[in-house]
Write a structure and sequence with these properties.
389 residues; alpha+beta; Butyryl-Coa Dehydrogenase, subunit A, domain 1; Butyryl-CoA Dehydrogenase, subunit A, domain 2; Butyryl-CoA Dehydrogenase, subunit A, domain 3; 3 domains; 7-stranded mixed sheet; globular; Flavin-dependent monooxygenase
Length: 389
């Protein structure tokens, strides 16, 4: 779909340099400072920042297009930076006091996250004392804060899934990210010891999904913040899968158009298998993009109308991205399997795209075995299975 997207046009000006840094990004095991500076220069980090702090508040379809384009240049950079961006949407649902702490004096401030509820808390006057080794915090080297998950005792004797926002000065980063894909995402562990978290930096996850959080309604003219946090938080994963697949298709055509078979000298590009693989993968990638664009547009329309989705709609939003990622991974596999042995060499872009493509389907939100169950139960009228994320 063609749409006006000034942010995307600005982003395109820095993509060649980010692509040129892709090998260095993997070597560093984190996004290079140069990439962060380039992305901040074009203002991508302001995509979901509230306008009152100088943000753009772009629509989710516009943002999704930007993430896909960035992923085509470097998936690791897209993975880390898209999360640093989407966290702003989540933080805008916290208290105004927290938002002022974050952005009043530094509107460029970013937050990483580790939202699985692995943290441990102890109640204290005015808040909690937080401890934990919080894993999977992508882009944390470039973050000023982090959003971390924990289970907090409630008055009914149960536990509430909550988020705490903690400044980088209150934790250390364990440089433990050694992975075979998304090597440069810097998805490291935050070591948090006896950090005091005041009440205004804590929110229940359920409240942030139901329009009951402290920040709900702070921006009545916004077309962005009348929406549950989770669809925006998770929006980047499938967009990255799409961007990787679109780049793999381009690369496959480039490589195959000049490729000849080593033992026969036959040209590969006109061979029936190459044509079939190109055609089917093209269809699959186009279908994934159309599916995602439709889903992103629904997100935007609901937020603009200040309308919260029902459970059935959320189930579709939750699982559509996983199916789109599944299609993209299949398309990438089909192309990579026929692109030639030379492209398995570690200095070749194709093998990096192949590895990163599979990582886009490995996140908890894109695990299709989980997502198919979630949607299937909803379509069949069954209650959600609490064992499924």
């Amino acid at each position: 779909m063609k749409r006006s997207n000034p942010l995307l046009e600005d982003l395109k000006s820095v993509l060649p340099q980010i692509a040129a840094n892709a090998s260095e990004t993997e070597t560093l095991r984190k996004v290079p400072a140069e990439n962060i500076a380039l992305l901040k220069k074009v203002g991508m980090h302001k995509a979901f920042l509230p306008k009152v702090y100088g943000g753009y508040e772009v629509s989710l379809p516009e943002f999704g297009d930007c993430v896909a384009a960035l992923a085509g240049a470097c998936a690791s950079t897209a993975w880390a930076f898209s999360l640093l961006c989407t966290h702003n949407h989540q933080l805008a649902l916290f208290s105004k006091q927290l938002q002022n702490e974050l952005w009043a004096n530094n509107p460029d401030a970013l937050a990483s996250s580790s939202i699985a509820p692995f943290g441990k808390s102890e109640e204290t006057e005015g808040g909690v004392i937080f401890n934990g080794d919080m894993k999977w915090s992508s882009g944390c080297d470039h973050a000023d804060w982090s959003i971390v998950g924990f289970l907090r005792d409630n008055k009914e004797g149960g536990k509430d899934y909550c988020f705490a926002v903690i400044p980088a000065t209150d934790y250390t980063i364990d440089d433990d990210w050694h992975a075979m894909a998304m090597k440069g995402s810097g998805t490291k562990t935050l070591q948090i010891r006896d950090a005091f978290v005041p009440e205004h930096r804590i929110q229940k996850a359920k409240d942030m999904m139901e329009g009951k959080s402290a920040g709900y309604g702070l921006y009545p003219d916004s077309k962005l913040f009348y929406a549950p946090y989770r669809p925006y938080f998770a929006s980047g994963f499938a967009a990255i899968s799409l961007g990787v697949a679109e780049r793999m298709l381009e690369l496959y055509k480039e490589v195959t158009s000049n490729r000849v078979r080593a033992y026969t000298g036959a040209k590969v590009n006109a061979a029936i298998p190459a044509i079939l693989r190109t055609g089917e993968s093209t269809h699959q990638i186009l279908a994934a993009r159309a599916f995602l664009e439709k889903t992103w547009q629904e997100h935007a329309e609901y937020a603009e109308a200040h309308r919260y989705p029902d459970r059935y709609t959320l189930a579709h939003w939750r699982t559509n991205q996983a199916y789109a990622a599944k299609m993209c991974i299949e398309a990438v596999d089909r192309l990579f399997n026929a692109i030639g042995a030379n492209n398995w060499l570690l200095d070749k872009e194709a093998q990096r795209l192949f590895r990163d493509s599979h990582m886009t389907g490995a996140h908890a939100y894109t695990d299709y075995d989980v997502c198919a169950q979630i949607l299937g139960r909803e379509v069949m009228g069954l209650e959600p299975d609490p064992s499924l994320l």
